[in-house]
Design goal:
Elements: E1 2-3, H1 4-9, E2 15-19, E3 27-28, E4 30-33, E5 47-53, H2 60-72, E6 77-82, H3 91-100, E7 104-107, H4 115-121
Helix pairs in contact: 2-3
Length: 123
């Protein structure tokens, strides 16, 4: 069984836990790349969600709203990557993740070699 703590302990280059230490023992059942609504048709409890802020499908405000919606669906954790590292995760989002006890990770865009990040963003 894999948990968000295991994901954090991988100490992956460019991946940083921003908050949500109290939720690190949530079990990860699958990875879900957030793209298509309605999310409940594609999401399962325990999914570890990844959102790419690409400024087409998602901007920061839409990402905040989606984080709250996905948490209600039972995600185990959330990772956010912002195209070209244009902006930081806002404190409002970090504070909400604390309130939700949701592990919130930031994935640096620059230098990320995963083809998945590029495919998700459409580039």
């Amino acid at each position: 069984m894999v948990t968000c703590r295991d994901v954090n302990n991988l100490d992956l280059d460019g991946v940083e836990l921003l908050t949500g230490e109290v939720g690190l023992d949530r079990v990860v059942s699958w990875t879900y790349f957030v793209q298509t609504k309605p999310y409940e048709d594609h999401m399962n409890p325990g999914n570890f969600a990844l959102i790419v802020v690409d400024y087409l499908r998602f901007d920061i405000e839409k990402t905040f709203e989606t984080m709250v919606e996905l948490n209600a669906l039972g995600i185990s954790g959330l990772a956010i990557s912002i195209v070209d590292d244009r902006e930081k995760i806002p404190q409002k989002m970090i504070d909400k993740a604390v309130e939700l006890k949701l592990p919130l990770f930031y994935v640096r865009w620059e230098g990320a070699t995963s083809w998945i990040l590029h495919r998700v963003s459409g580039s």
